[in-house]
Every structure is written in structure tokens, then in C-alpha cells.
TrEMBL record:
Signal peptide: 1-21
Protein name per its UniProtKB record: Lipoprotein
Domain of life: Bacteria
Keyword line: Signal
Amino acid sequence: MRHPLKLLAGILAFHASFICAQTINSPGAAGGSPSVLMITRGDTATTSACDVGIYLKNELAARLMAGESVSFNLPPGETTVTLRSLGAGYCSAPMASIKSQSLLLAPGEIKQYRVVQSEQGYFLAPVDLYQDR
């Protein structure tokens, strides 16, 4: 009988922590609708074969391979985005300089960007919403 009670207590604790996390991260608690940041990467014919790491506020948030896209629900306001090459060998060599970009997101706004590679490194270029490049 003791084992089922431990299992039930564990399940209740998990659900309680999940409810608390939803309350803390809910857009209503921040005072506005969430913003959506969409980032797309082209195919390998036009970009590097290395994976690209997307860092939001200096934390790895996604890893994009060629041809992939990712979307983030973010609180409105200023967000810092940094792109870095990920992987071993050639991909681990740092590109010229890693620069962060600051993006301003309004409540409920949807912004779409594509990853662009230049001699100076990776950066985000704005794209008309839902346009595939």
C-alpha cells in the first residue's frame, strides 16, 4: 500500500510544479500578449553546412540545421539574439566576431527573420511575414 501512495504524492507534486510554472510564465502575468519570433535558415546550397546555434539572452535556445525554422513565444520588449556556428572541426572555428542583435517585440507582434551568413559571421535579416526564402 505504501508504494501507490508515494506514486500519487509524486504525481501531485509534479502537477503542482507544472501549474506554478504556467502561472509564472503566462503572458498575462507580464501584462501583455506574447510576441512571436520566427527564425528560418536556408538550405546548404546558400549557407554553411554547420549547424547554427540561436542564443536568446546568452542561453542556447535552438539549434538550426539547413532548411529548418524555429518559433519562440517571447514576452514583449527587447530581446537579445546571438547566432553562433555549432559543431566539431571546421564548425567549431569562431567566425570573425560574434555579434548580438537587439530586437524590439511589441505585444502580440509576429516577426520573421532569416539567418544570413557573411564574411563577418551570422546575422538575422528581416523577412516579410510568411515569405519563404
